[in-house]
Amino acid sequence: MKLNEVFRGMICEIHGDETVEIKDLKYDSRGVKRGDLFFCISGFAEDGLKYAPEAVKKGAAAVVVTEFQPNLDVTQVIVKNDRETMALAACRFFDFPAKRMKMVGVTGTNGKTTTTYMLKAIAEQAGMKVGVIGTIRNMIGDEVIHTERTTPESVDLQRLLKKMAEEGCDIVAMEVSSHSLVLKRVFGIEFDVGIFTNLTQDHLDFHQTWDNYIAAKSMLFEQSRISVINIDDDSAANMMAAARSEIIKYSVMQPVQYAAKEIEITHESTQFDIDLNGHTLHVEIGIPGYFTVYNAMGAIVAANALGIDSYCIEQGLKAMPPVAGRFEPLDTHGGSFSIILDYAHTPDSLKNAIATAKKFAPGRVVTIFGCGGNRDATKRAVMGKIAGEMSDFTIITSDNPRYEEPVAIIAQIEEGMRQTSGEYVCIVNRRDAIEHAIRTAKKDDVILLAGKGHEDYQEIKGEKHDFDEKVVVEELLNKLGYHK
Ligand SMILES: CC(=O)N[C@H]1[C@@H](OP(=O)(O)OP(=O)(O)OC[C@H]2O[C@@H](n3ccc(=O)[nH]c3=O)[C@H](O)[C@@H]2O)O[C@H](CO)[C@@H](O)[C@@H]1O[C@H](C)C(=O)N[C@@H](C)C(=O)N[C@H](CCC(=O)O)C(=O)O
Ligand SMILES: Nc1ncnc2c1ncn2[C@@H]1O[C@H](COP(=O)(O)OP(=O)(O)OP(=O)(O)O)[C@@H](O)[C@H]1O
Ligand SMILES: N[C@H](CCC[C@H](N)C(=O)O)C(=O)O
Ligand SMILES: [Mg+2]
């Protein structure tokens, strides 16, 4: 595509050859190839402008900057907003792939991944090919595509959407993180449906204030044709105020049109009824927990708004496979205790996960968790307090310490723990922590491994070490004499 085509209809100034051919779009100089258009993004850590000479040396056909650079001998596009322009240019360059599929965006602090897998199960039951974009992996039908981010950078996102459209996806269920909304990764996409799950504490390192966090999440509903809102959440009004057009409310506690009734939660499933188009649907899902009702309600209401029939909704959820690392029971090789693998890494999700475990545990609930380094530090003591108040025993350990000192993170968690009478130990090494829990497990205990879920690594000082908690548990069970 020619440069002036990429920017057609956008406010910008082109200095140099505006008909130069553009082969691809890049925002990281390390991946630039001959003929690429390089976007200089002014980031938190670096100014992409610094890397423009490197991009030009590698053969970039043009660069996008916010001010003309007299020292750069290449065609330059001068724009006002770097990330917004990059997102819009990516929509055009990849030929607006989102317009060719039904787009469902899910935002909220917890439940995004789970909700997208529920939508996948429902849409596949209806015979649709589904694209999934999110934390665990991206998927085109059954094909798995590795991902680094929950919501990819705009250029990577549009490239992926194009692939999904070309491979015949009818619908895309994607997680829309608050980072992605602020950083304009989904700018330019019109979602057919936007879903709001809930808003509780997380990511205050990035957003700084609660109001900023609310404002970030609400941006999704400015760009959604239909907004599906959990009105039991305290921030629902903010989301609805941002909504551009139709709003559909759902609830578990209030008598609105879409409300869950007759809720029944067992140790292996969640069941409830919902009235849909004059029929009562009996929903059954293999993930225990009150929160599962909420996630399913969002998925059901969205699917219904897209015209998917009730039978497919019911059957799709019934047949849905477990979501990796989301309250997933692990094989204990005949041990008389249970082990649950979960991804709770926020105060609210930890509270929910422990509460669900407690509801069914015939014995103690032993919670093992840590908190990620270089992420919201204010949630650490809060999570310590929750674990102390709700668990029968807690093992405080490491999550992904990243560039922080593990013992310093643990000390912050302990501050909250010490406000309770909860019994606990601190074991910095996560493998040792799990080993301790298995060694000391009593009959009927539930060991709740919280925080790492599907992750197969532990990030320490910039390096990702192999750490798949499922594999670690297998190894430890074998070591401790529990053989299959
Ligand atoms: C906080 C955040 O989201 N930061 C994102 C942001 O980084 P940044 O603004 O700091 O970028 P920077 O490092 O200053 O670099 C500026 C520009 O120079 C470029 N550069 C840099 C070095 C170089 O050699 N050459 C070069 O061209 C970079 O590619 C970038 O375009 O823009 C980068 C791409 O432009 C992203 O890769 C980066 O994601 C970082 C790695 C990240 O960890 N993000 C996490 C927090 C995140 O987005 N998480 C959410 C999930 C949250 C949830 O679960 O709810 C997600 O959607 O994944
Ligand atoms: N609706 C919910 N409300 C509260 N907690 C939930 C909810 N759904 C799931 N959880 C808990 O949160 C954990 C993470 O769930 P999930 O991965 O679906 O959320 P997410 O929003 O995608 O998270 P992330 O922001 O990390 O991508 C689960 O393992 C479970 O413990
Ligand atoms: N998407 C989230 C995941 C956190 C998972 C937890 N294991 C941690 O590392 O804190 C983040 O990057 O903040
Ligand atoms: Mg997720």
UniProtKB/TrEMBL annotation:
Alphabetical keyword list: ATP-binding, Cell cycle, Cell division, Cell shape, Cell wall biogenesis/degradation, Cytoplasm, Ligase, Magnesium, Nucleotide-binding, Peptidoglycan synthesis
EC number: 6.3.2.13
Ranges where the Mur ligase C-terminal domain occurs: 325-453
Modified-residue entries (N6-carboxylysine), positions: K217
Residues annotated for UDP-N-acetyl-alpha-D-muramoyl-L-alanyl-D-glutamate binding in this entry: S29, T150, T151, S177, R185
Functional pathway: Cell wall biogenesis; peptidoglycan biosynthesis
Statement: the UniProt record of this protein carries the keyword Protein biosynthesis: no
Assigned protein family: Belongs to the MurCDEF family. MurE subfamily.
Name the UniProt record assigns to this protein: UDP-N-acetylmuramoyl-L-alanyl-D-glutamate--2,6-diaminopimelate ligase
Organism from which the protein derives: Christensenella hongkongensis
